[in-house]
Design goal:
Strand order of the largest sheet: 9-8-7-10-11-14-12-13
Low-confidence stretches: none
Helix content: 25-40%
CATH superfamily of the largest domain: NAD(P)-binding Rossmann-like Domain
Number of strands: 14
Largest sheet: 8 strands, parallel
Shape: globular
CATH architecture of the largest domain: 3-Layer(aba) Sandwich
Mean pLDDT: 94
Number of domains: 2
Distance between the termini: 33 Å
CATH class of the largest domain: Alpha Beta
Structural class: alpha/beta
Strand content: 15-25%
Radius of gyration: 19 Å
CATH topology of the largest domain: Rossmann fold
Order of helices and strands: EHHEEEEEHEHEHEHEEHEHHEHEH
């Protein structure tokens, strides 16, 4: 007789948020990057959508031998934004690393959003000035409010500025962030003015043209680039890249997907040898991060499967008696 199948628990967005407070999640990701783990290159497939921009399918596996295995199945449909729907949808599946039994299903979109914001904050822990107080978030989608929350967990942020193409959305988001974080907020109409005022600039858009220009970056600024997850996208110009000490999450992911850096390379302004360090080097102490108060730093993330795995593991362990 076949072994009876037990019901696999599903963790929704509220449960994931409750199990992954920012300090705990940020530290878990830091430990994940220095752990002995496996995270093969993600599988990426184009999905044609009649009459709309092509979509993307992603499969992202990762595992820690003898302990845990997980895989994220995700879709990115950029045209969903026109209808006010989420562009990114995903589900995460967690398995026992010793026997392969499925342990849990999770809201992959929430896993992705929280680990992405936490990874940006983790990088800022090494790259933003310790006295950074003003954060500018560029974009009005799902990630900017999470980026504000996560950055406030690693720096004493007291002012959050918001810029978006839609001024009304930017104003509403600024009000929301102010209420959630008890900080001063405001929507900026002129992006250059906002960039020049900010200690940290965090971009989370799907732009295909440069938004933040290198000429606007003041000494000591930390530039966090979360969007531009394909070679065709970019959130900054080549001058922003060349003026900065450039850090990445992983080299393999950056070479395949970091649109800002790929554009700069295609313009003969940058090369992969110019990357200062990746997150594993920062988290292990192999590189100290920011070298001076006046240095302009840039962190380009495209996401790594180990980030998803540790966020999912943290969520699952929070629900078990030994977690």
């Amino acid at each position: 007789m076949s072994e009876p199948q037990s019901t696999i628990p599903f963790f929704d967005a509220d449960q994931i948020r409750g199990a992954t407070p920012w300090p705990r999640l940020i530290e878990a990701i830091a430990q994940g990057f220095v752990s002995t783990h496996h995270a093969p290159d993600r599988h990426i497939h184009d999905l044609a959508v009649p009459g709309e921009v092509d979509a993307t399918a992603l499969l992202m596996p990762a595992w820690i031998e003898g302990e845990i295995y997980g895989v994220k199945l995700a879709t990115i449909f950029p045209s969903n934004n026109k209808a006010g729907a989420r562009a990114v949808n995903a589900i995460y599946v967690l398995f026992d690393g010793m026997n392969g039994k499925p342990l849990a299903l999770m809201d992959g979109g929430e896993i992705t959003a929280r680990r992405t914001a936490a990874t940006s904050a983790l990088a800022a822990r090494y790259l933003a000035r310790e006295d950074a107080r003003t954060l500018l978030v560029v974009g009005t989608g799902r990630l900017p409010p999470l980026l504000a929350q996560a950055h406030k967990a690693v720096r004493d942020i007291d002012t959050v500025l918001v810029w978006g193409r839609n001024g009304e959305k930017a104003e509403k988001l600024a009000q929301r962030i102010g209420a959630e974080l008890d900080v001063e907020t405001g929507a900026v109409k002129d992006l250059e003015v906002g960039v020049r005022q900010a200690d940290i600039v965090s971009c989370a858009t799907i732009s295909r043209e440069a938004l933040v220009l290198g000429d606007w970056l003041e000494p000591g600024t930390h530039l966090d680039l979360v969007g531009a997850f394909t070679p065709l996208m970019r959130e900054t110009d080549a001058k922003a890249v060349t003026r900065s000490a450039v850090f990445i999450d992983t080299l393999g992911g950056a070479k395949a997907e970091a649109g800002d850096l790929i554009h700069a390379i295609n313009e003969a302004a940058f090369g992969w040898d110019d990357v200062v360090a990746d997150l594993p080097a920062l988290c292990s102490g192999a590189h100290k991060g920011r070298s001076s108060a006046d240095e302009i730093t840039l962190f380009k993330s495209v996401g790594a499967a180990i980030e998803d795995l540790v966020a999912a593991r943290l969520t699952y362990k929070a629900s078990t008696p030994t977690g």
